[in-house]
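Subject: XRE family transcriptional regulator structure
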Amino acid sequence: MTQGQLAEAFSAERSTSVPLISSWESTTSPKPPPTARLEQYARFFATVRSAEEGTFRLLTVDELNTAERLAYEELLDQLTTLRPELPGQRGAHLTAAPHSKGLWQFPDSYNIVIVCARLPRDLMHSMGSYTDPNDPDYVDLYTYADPDALIELFGHIRAVNSVSNVRFKTVDQLERDDYTAHLVLLGGVDWNRLTRELLERVDVPVEQITRPTTEEPSGFEVTDEHGPRMYSPTVRGGRLLEDVAHFYRGENPFNVARTVTICNGMYGRGTYGAVRALTDAKFRGRNDDYVRNQLDRHGVYSLLMRVQVVAGQVVTPDWTVAETRLHEWPEAAS
């Protein structure tokens, strides 16, 4: 088939020209395509149905049958492995978990550790016997911050990483080898000190500002070419109407062959919203596609978002809606 026919198929999802494909396939000076484009190649060549009756098109992953899905995943794995990491593209080797299971599926079978904070002692004391290890009614999970986000995420990660050892711990329970696994951090800098330390170590123009008190919302400060800007939650009459949350994915600074993912909000419902964006069955597919097509060019990206709270309940953020996205880094692809 010709490069023009391939461009016809790819353009249904994202504008593609013949010169662009030619630059990827050049035998003298090739330009490696972005990971999202490799995913299109794998999907197209996984099935003869992509070119049936002289019509060139891309099937979705859900449209592939079992044999085609296997071919797709094998092709994607091969193409991703072959793609070189170019100068200035830190973290490119961390991208492209199989698209069918989303961004919470990791590309290998190594350990995954979800890290939460412990509740401050004054809050644990207010909960009575359930948080006292010496009491017969003690329940360890009551001492965790962000239990909603933890329960939601732990089950989902276990489901899509069936051969991996998935564990959850509080920061104070971490052992030396935990730091070099795939790390998933829940909760903000106020209580989760590992979130605070890792955000200081990674190169991202977003800083979470510590809340002076639990009643004062503070916010996330973004510094870019437009100068510093603060994004804060909306609290009226003591009720949280809208939180601000942050999703970050990049290489683990303690082991560059593994990843670190941070889901944090100014309040617990922001953290829960950042998690639900990629676990909620109604939204995870479109949010996953948005990240892969717009942000995941080098395997390192950050998204600051609004999380709506209605009658005390978290509404899952839709990243395809511009008003939901407060800041993206790197800037979304055109």
